């Protein structure tokens, strides 16, 4: 930390921040500082796929957030994991590679007023960093697949590895067949723009190891660049804002707590917040940017009022339906004995396969919650296991879990500071199931689970509904039971959203620049106007790819002529 002046400072070495650091430091004339509040990703459980069980709820790798008591969840609080290590949430998440639907991005283009966000345009950003298993050998991908995912023969090979899962389960194969019998088509690619169908998820792994963004974008590329600097154990506590001669604001740097001292880092060009949908709005609010009434209540000077900072929180709420089965091996039995655990460990040690290579969810399905829905609006994450809640022991009986979530919730929550102290976690209030529409989708989605479970393909396993329970049938009962058993699927977005000029709740413009503050962007899931229809990690990478292109173009335009 001997030199504290840089061209660009990136706050957060997670999903977006790692890619941004890679792309921006590629220009050797630009000095880039990447800040990470957590430690290096040298904890072994980060890299073993099943290690998420030991990373979530662990202060070494998780911010340990909790939600406020939620009326939609019948007063319950939820654990709200966020990655606190190099790679951020990509170091502790479910590793599922999912772009979302084309309609998501076409909707963004309409909401923010910029055609750059349309599907056909963002597709190029996805392709720029994707390294797909089907492209490993020439000729493996057909023309349609190559159009969507690139073609190695053209020299296009990115850093973000996508692989097939390295296991199969009979009960999951039977669920997939039952889903097809219930009218959901089979698919081998969820990422073509319309993700309707059932199939095994593809994952961000490499040879049976988790592939996080620190491996993909920082190591070894950035570490060898003399113009790149990484500070770990470095928590941004406040943005430095300067009033210009014309009265406008400019962000000039960041105040950083190292654990022993406060250091000021200066940025001559730009500060980029990539701290995530919880920490980015918190840092803006602590710095005097946000809803005026909130800031005044905590004694913070209102330097720039932006009502939308911390508003518009969206998340995917998963309803965990559990079915007991007969005659099918599940992880509940396999992991219940010392012999079973030893067998699992040996298989992974020898072949990098088996349950230790598992993503938290293996089989996926996208469909409609009811016939009147114009597009797939619910997603299944299906697992050959069951438990009462995340972190609790597996059940003693064989079972599978069919978690189902509303892809496009209409409920909106908030993230707000509790005090002017950066050490205090913000208040996270998702407001799940707070609209009639979301409660109806919850009830309907549980009926879809029941319809699949009743198909012939599952009959030989005699599925018996354990949760929520077949005695609950009405919309009101099912919505209330959803509140009892539902949990977050860890996809918070939207708390510093993009929007059109004149939108009073738009924190950012279409290029993710903070409105009214020069030299400041938010490039992470906070910027999403609406949540994507699926897992949100890879869409966040795409947004960073888009931002990097705009930032580099801006730097070239501002450079003095030779």
Automatic annotation (TrEMBL):
InterPro entries: FAD/NAD-bd_sf (IPR036188), GMC_OxRdtase (IPR012132), GMC_OxRdtase_N (IPR000172), GMC_OxRtase_C (IPR007867). Its cofactor is FAD. Keywords: FAD, Flavoprotein. Residues 276-290 form the Glucose-methanol-choline oxidoreductase N-terminal domain. One of its GO terms (molecular function) is oxidoreductase activity, acting on CH-OH group of donors. Belongs to the GMC oxidoreductase family. This is Choline dehydrogenase. The lineage of its organism: Bacteria, Pseudomonadati, Pseudomonadota, Betaproteobacteria, Burkholderiales.
